[in-house]
Input
Amino acid sequence: MVMTTNTNTAATTGTTTTGTTTTGAVTPAGTGGSAGGRPGRIDFAKAAPKVFRALVGFDAAAREGLDPALVELIQIRASHLNHCAYCLHMHTNDARKAGESEDRLHMVAVWREARHFFTPKEQAALALTEAVTRVADAGVPDDVYAEAAAHFDDAELGHVLALILTINTWNRVALSTAKVAGTDERR
Output
């Protein structure tokens, strides 16, 4: 949810990153409050600033060393599955700005039927994203994990898993705080 290509994802006073600073506090990079959510819902960053900063740090660490295009594909697919319009809007826009083609963006939701749009490595990451996002349905099948492990070394696979975990968390923050698609507060 908080992804931008090649930058960190929230601002704190005195730090140059993506996001904004207001009144010396961390401004949400798309998380809660009436500015981009329904009135009456909390601003997650203000309500739990230590948790928010920890999540931002986890998110930034997760994406280190990963191809920015792959990062966006993972975040887009998880956001599809979680029905998070806020994050889907944000990450498809980020992907476009990073040079992703419209054809590939349109095919992410149906990637299994449009495999020729994606590399085998991307397909393995998308399958793992689906399995981890839907972990309650059937766990993470051995064949899905093995395919991902065949395309990523241990460090990369650890980062891919961490990224999947962070986007699932950001999706849940956005959905719980009723974020509205198109109200990206990072800008």
Observations:
- The beta strands are 21-22, 25-26.
- The mean pLDDT is 83.
- The chain is about 55% helix and 0% strand.
- The first helix runs from residue 44 to 47.
